[in-house]
C-alpha cells in the first residue's frame, strides 16, 4: 500500500466563516490553526500547504476567561534602551481586535515558510460583515 501525498494542483481550497462571539480565544485560535494547516482533511500532508481559508467575524466579541482582560499584557519594544511598552489585552481588544486573534493563531502555526503561507489565508474582521461573500464561505462550527 502506497502513501498518498497532497500535490499543490490537487488541493481543493474551501472558505469557512467563523463567528468569534463569546468563544474562548485559545480554543478559537487552535481550531483556526488546524483548518489553516489542513489537518481537518484526510489528505493532510505535513510538508505541503493543504489548508483552507478562514474568515473570522465579530473579533471584538471574542471571549477571554478569568482576569485576562486586565492581567494579560501585550509587550513590544522599540529597540532603544528603555523602549519597552506594554498594554493590557482589554485595551488592545478595544483598539485592535483583529490583532489579538491574528497573534494567537500565529503562535499556533509552525515557524517556517508553511506557517507564513498559512497565516495569509486568515482574514479577521472586527464586526459582523466581511467582503468575501463571492467565495461563498461555509459556516464553521466547533
Number of strands: 6
Radius of gyration: 17 Å
Instruction: Report how far the terminal alpha carbons are from each other.
Output: 34 Å
Low-confidence stretches: none
- Tell me the structural class: alpha/beta
Which architecture of one domain per CATH?
Alpha-Beta Complex
CATH class of one domain: Alpha Beta
Beta content comes to 15-25%
CATH superfamily name of one domain?
Answer: Ribosomal protein L13
Largest β-sheet summary: 4 strands, parallel
Helix content: 25-40%
A few lines on this structure:
It contains five helices and six strands, in the order E-H-E-H-E-E-H-H-H-E-E. By secondary structure, the protein is of the alpha/beta class. Helix 1 links the parallel strand 1 and strand 2.
In words, what does this structure look like?
With 142 residues, the protein is α/β, with parallel strands linked by helices. It has a domain at 14-65 and 98-139: Ribosomal protein L13 (Ribosomal Protein L13p, Chain: A). It contains five helices and six strands; from the N terminus they run E-H-E-H-E-E-H-H-H-E-E. It has helices at 25-37, 68-71, 89-95, 97-107, 113-119, and strands spanning 15-19, 53-57, 73-77, 84-88, 122-124, 138-139. A four-stranded parallel sheet has the order 5-2-1-6, with helices on one face. Strands 3-4 form a two-stranded antiparallel sheet. The longest helix is centred in the first third of the chain and has 13 residues, at 25-37. The chain is globular. It starts with 14 loop residues before the first strand and ends with a strand. The model has no long low-confidence stretch (mean pLDDT 94).
Amino acid at each position: 500500500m502506497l502513501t498518498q501525498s497532497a500535490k499543490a494542483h490537487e488541493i481543493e481550497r474551501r472558505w469557512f466563516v467563523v463567528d468569534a462571539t463569546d468563544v474562548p480565544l485559545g480554543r478559537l485560535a487552535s481550531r483556526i490553526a488546524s483548518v489553516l494547516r489542513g489537518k481537518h482533511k484526510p489528505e493532510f500532508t505535513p510538508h505541503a500547504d493543504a489548508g483552507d481559508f478562514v474568515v473570522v467575524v465579530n473579533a471584538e466579541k471574542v471571549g477571554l476567561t478569568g482576569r485576562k482582560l486586565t492581567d494579560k499584557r501585550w509587550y513590544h519594544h522599540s529597540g532603544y534602551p528603555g523602549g519597552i511598552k506594554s498594554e493590557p489585552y482589554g485595551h488592545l481588544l478595544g483598539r485592535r481586535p483583529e490583532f489579538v486573534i491574528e497573534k494567537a493563531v500565529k503562535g499556533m502555526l509552525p515557524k517556517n515558510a508553511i506557517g507564513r503561507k498559512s497565516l495569509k489565508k486568515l482574514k479577521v474582521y472586527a464586526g459582523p460583515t466581511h467582503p468575501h461573500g463571492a467565495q461563498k464561505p461555509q459556516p464553521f462550527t466547533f
